[in-house]
Amino acid sequence: MPVDYEQQARTYDLTRSASPTVFRLLEKHLGPAEGRSLLDVAGGTGNYAQVLAARGFRVTVVDRAAAMLGRVAGKIGPGRAVRGDATRLPFAGAAFDAVAMVSALHQLPDQPGALAEARRVVRDGPFVLMAFTRENLAPLFLFEYFPGSAPPSDMHMTAAEIEEALLAGGFREVERETFVYVDTADGSLSALHTDALSLAGPAYLRNTSFFHRIDDDVRREGLARLAEDLRSGRLRERVDESFRLAIRQGHGTIFRALP
Fold first, then answer.
1. Cα separation of 88 and 117, whole Å?
2. According to DSSP H, which parts of the chain are helical?
3. How far is 32 from 227, CA to CA, in rounded Å?
4. Does the pTM exceed 0.90?
5. Residue 26: burial class (beta carbons within 10 Å; 0-12, 13-18, 19+)
6. CA distances from 216 to 18, 180, 205 (A)
7. Domains in the chain, ordered, with CATH?
8. For position 2, what pLDDT does the model report?
9. Phi/psi zone of residue 233: left (φ > 0), alpha (ψ -120 to 50 degrees), beta?
C-alpha cells in the first residue's frame, strides 16, 4: 500500500468523517435501503458504513488495513468488518444486494480488476462508485506547494476509462455525474480545497494519501509557504479560484453501475 494506514488509523477519524455532499449522492444512487445487504469496499474505519447502516442497509466493510478495520465495530457493530483485498474479495459471487466504494479506487494497483470484483459479488445492484477522476484533479493546486507530490499519471483514470472498465468488467449499464464539495467533512484533498484554513492545516494534510509520498524537507517547506499565503490572504484567493474551476470540472464523480 502506498500509505501506511496502520499508522494513519490512529489519527484518521480526528479529521475524516462522512461528507454530507457525498452521502446525499450515495443515498440517491443506491436507492432505498429496505434492509438490503451492502458491501463497502476499501471502507477504512467505517465512516460511510456508519451513515449507510443508519439509513437501514446491512453493511459489511472490507479493507486491507487491520488497524483501520479495528474502528468499524464501534460504528456499525461487531462482526461486520472483514480484512481483504479489493482485487480479490473474500466473498462468494452475488453475495451482496449492493456494493459501494468511496474515495479508494485511485489507491488500488489493479483498478479494472477491482471493478470486476465488485461486479462478481453484487447481486441486483447497483454498484455505486465515488472516484476522483483525472479530470477532477484540475482544481487541485496544492501540489504546487509540495514539489514531487503530484500523483503519477496512471494513478487516476479518466471518467471514460472508468466507465469502459465497468462495462468490460460485466456491468451492463453505467451512468455518472460530477459533484462539487460544499463541506470538508471527509477530509479528502479535494474537500480541503474548499477551505483555506483546513488546506493549510498539518493535522488535516497528514491524513491524506498524497502527503505520504513526499519527504520531510518538502513537507516543512510546503507547510511554511501555505502558512505564509494563509496570512496574506493569497490562499483564500486561490481556494476561490479553485472552486470556480471545480464547478466546471467537478471535485469528484459518482458512477452508478447495474449488473
1. 7
2. 5-8, 12-15, 20-30, 47-54, 66-69, 73-76, 111-121, 159-168, 189-192, 196-199, 202-205, 216-232, 234-249
3. 45
4. yes
5. buried
6. 29, 31, 13
7. 5-258 (3.40.50.150)
8. 56
9. left
